[in-house]
Amino acid sequence: NAGVTQTPKFRILKIGQSMTLQCTQDMNHNYMYWYRQDPGMGLKLIYYSVGAGITDKGEVPNGYNVSRSTTEDFPLRLELAAPSQTSVYFCASSPSYREGYTFGSGTRLTVV
Amino acid sequence: AQSVTQLGSHVSVSEGALVLLRCNYSSSVPPYLFWYVQYPNQGLQLLLKYTTGATLVKGINGFEAEFKKSETSFHLTKPSAHMSDAAEYFCAVRINSGGYQKVTFGTGTKLQVIP
Q1: Sorting pLDDT into bands at 50, 70 and 90, what band is B29?
Q2: Which residue from B34, B42, B108 is facing A100, i.e. has the nearest CB?
């Protein structure tokens, strides 16, 4: 099983550029999440979704957007990239709130 | 508000020694608790979880954790450290608050295993 697949693994953006981080899962999980991880800061929730067509903001949503048109896919859009968005981004999914998350391998983004 | 505190951002143990990673949480409702492990340049992997029932929870790779409500703790232990245990460990707490599932992660503890 592939689990949660994130692409790309690495990306360098210039300030003001935009990009989409892709996330897909093949476990038929309803819940999906986007986190960013900064050194010494743990993980911060950007957006989450409880099913296709339903998304909501997490702790740090500014500068990002998401969509969830299918159960499998949960892309994260960065508009007008800023240096503060330099981070490692993780997508995760879970079948319910009782279960732990399955994480992707991450996307390391640098904004210069 | 809920929070998670991991005591010690770095912990060093000798190979074969006891591993103890500390996690304390604050929550006004019964929590679900999780431990994750992250190896370099990888995503987080679930080690174990507590939802309800038995307070001593066993996970993968020989790790276990005990939920102590009176101490609001969920410390992670392993009797004998192995070199392959060197990684970063994250405690997380999840509560159901009016239908919104909020998860808070600790800031992580890096475990070094000394040969």
Answers
A1: confident
A2: B34
- Give the DSSP per-residue string, A52-86: TTEEEE-S--TTEEE--SSSSB--EEE-S--GGG-
Residue positions counted in chain B? 115
In this predicted structure, what is the pLDDT of residue B64? 97
Q: CA B13, B76, A99 angle in degrees (round to 5)?
A: 140
Q: Tell me, yes or no, if B49 comes closer than 8 A to chain A by beta carbon.
A: yes
Nearest CA in chain A to B43: A105
Burial B21-32 (b: 16+ CB within 10 A, else e): bbbbbebeeebb
Distance between CA atoms of residues B90 and A8, nearest Å: 24
Q: Residue A65 above 70 pLDDT?
A: yes
For residue A111, the model assigns a pLDDT of 96
Residue A80 has pLDDT above 90, yes or no: yes
Identify the bridge partners of residue B6 per DSSP, sorted by sequence position.
B23
Statement: residue B28 has pLDDT above 80: no
In one-letter notation, the amino acid at residue B24 is N
Q: What is the mean pLDDT of chain B?
A: 91
Query: In whole angstroms, what is the distance from residue B14 CA to residue B94 CA?
Result: 32
**Of the candidates A20, A23, A12, A13, which has an alpha carbon nearest to the alpha carbon of residue A106?**
A23
